[in-house]
DNA sequence: TTGTATGCGTTATCAT
DNA sequence: ATGATAACGCATACAA
């Protein structure tokens, strides 16, 4: 008897149905099979509660219907949102998603890629920060928010347009002088284009502005913005009436700080953030913000990754952003 | 030549190294191998950039170092937090995590389990709501927040203690009459014990209270709490001085609503939530709250799932909660 | 200690 | 149309 208690295989099904394994395989894969055989096989499958072993399938076909997603984490609202929509987009196409959280650790990012290759996944989607990422050519890779190489498509929102939109909104809302606060990676990534777009918009609208940049890599703290802001307040009077923050997260911290300084939002100071993520999964935005089309980004990533009939993939895809009112503008 | 351009296999390594495949396999798996052979093999592996095919491995060993995590979504802060810590706990143990987001859809939950079985994963961790979940006996399963069957371990925070702790805090903070607002699933799950714990705590401390329960399944809206709250305000004067909300998310909505009614938090009304999730991944809590030990829960789930030497697994594990001040209490 | 051969479950290529 | 059989890449018992 031997392997009595192990899982049923295609052979067991064939035996019970009184047909050959080839026939069973055909039934499973929807190939043309005689009516009566069809029935016998299906009954046997049900009777044994047989499931195909996707590892054997993967070994044979070297197609695993599995995609690895590399992302810093899922507790941060924006990343959580991205991860979720990637999952939905993949599931919709019958793909499984293996997730690696890297906390922006360069080594972990590289390890994740190596592990993915080892697991013969059909592709990788990565939101990474490692500037020296080694990606072997034979595996489809789509990058989010960072151009890695010309042969690797990068998907992002239109960060430049987003920055410009923010500037235009401030102008429209009657602001005269706006601060741009940014803290992020020094890497040459897409979100850094928010600044250029913002400056462009300010120039277009004749809006006065000042920029303060802080760096992740340099270990700057968000609270380093505080003295900068204070230097713009003389005798309780700010010389600015708007603040554009590079992310909604940053906005929330800064909002708390300037409220401590006795300024009210949006009465005294109007604020616009970036990302447009809804905390708690609610529908309402927690601040006025430039909204990233996260779902569209996720869909685009998956489409690009899985379309093997596309000869030359676009090196950079920018998806449109929108402005959403969220209580920090008038 | 044939398969010239395909990935190198263990055979290619063996050929290049001038040894047998068995030897290569041993080197890969850290079995004892002669010093000189060791070197030759390792060089060949490097030269070919060889990676073991984990599908072939999985087929052979029927051990895949893969765990499926079933969770409603990752954009909601609490779920995102859970998913993240599960990922970290699994990665730490060299396991890969396949994620399925189900949005609490019962069919999707069942499908995810079936798919997991098909993929021969080593185990499943599920935060599910389907009351009729069919889980075949031969796959390790750990449930979060809901007891599914005596043979399936359930891991949760100590919800009863959490409810009681909230009541005790209210008493300590000088409250005389507290409202308990709960919206959730009617399923017999662990979080529903918060109510009993709260009532117990109120009784213990001689605290007056009233309870209002809303149901997910009945399609209730959180705004259905508004008339209930208003019925407790006579001529602008509330007959309560505290509100315990079954989740932080709910607290944030209710806080907005009662502020619209002209009540201030925490000056007029003190509020305590449940979950203790930090928005934006910050360190600060967004409200005073009963904090779930998410990391401990994740670790416990993984430990329980992967410990095969444990003969009888505990049917229910409750992990301790703590109170955190977050600006909605005095 | 090292090499050889068999099997894991599936699919695809043959004959039949 | 159906059945037998050879791969897929790896691990392991067994032989050398």
Written account of the structure:
The structure is a homodimer of 330-residue chains. Chain A is of the alpha/beta class and 330 residues long. Helix content of chain A is 38%, strand content 19%. Chain A is built from 11 helices and 14 strands. In chain A, the strands form 3 sheets. Chain A has a 6-stranded parallel sheet with strand order 2-1-3-4-5-13, sandwiched between helices. Chains A and B meet through helix 4, helix 5, strand 2, helix 6 and helix 10 of A and helix 4, helix 5, strand 2, helix 6 and helix 10 of B. Chain B binds a DNA duplex (16 and 16 nucleotides) through helix 2 and helix 4.
CATH topology of the largest domain in chain A: Rossmann fold
- Assembly level: homodimer
**Main sheet specs of chain A:** 6 strands, parallel
Strand content of chain A: 15-25%
Instruction: Give the total of domains of chain A.
Output: 3
Give the CA-CA distance, first to last residue of chain A. Answer: 78 Å
Question: Which two protein chains have the largest interface (Cβ within 8 Å of the partner's Cβ), and how many residues from each?
Answer: A-B, 50 and 50 residues
Total beta strand runs of chain A: 14
Number of H- or I-type helical stretches of chain A: 11
Structural class of chain A, please?
Answer: alpha/beta
Q: What is the name of the CATH architecture of the largest domain in chain A? A: 3-Layer(aba) Sandwich
**Side-by-side strand order of the widest sheet of chain A:** 2-1-3-4-5-13
Name the CATH superfamily assignment of the largest domain in chain A.
Answer: Response regulator
Which stretches of chain A of 5+ consecutive residues score pLDDT under 50?
A: none
SSE arrangement of chain A, N to C: HHHHEHEHEEEHEHEHEEEHEEHEE
Query: What number is the mean pLDDT of chain A?
Result: 93
Q: Summarize the amount of helix of chain A as a percent range.
A: 25-40%
Rg result of chain A: 26 Å
CATH top level of the largest domain in chain A?
Alpha Beta
Q: Which overall shape of chain A is indicated by the principal axes computed on the Cα atoms?
A: elongated
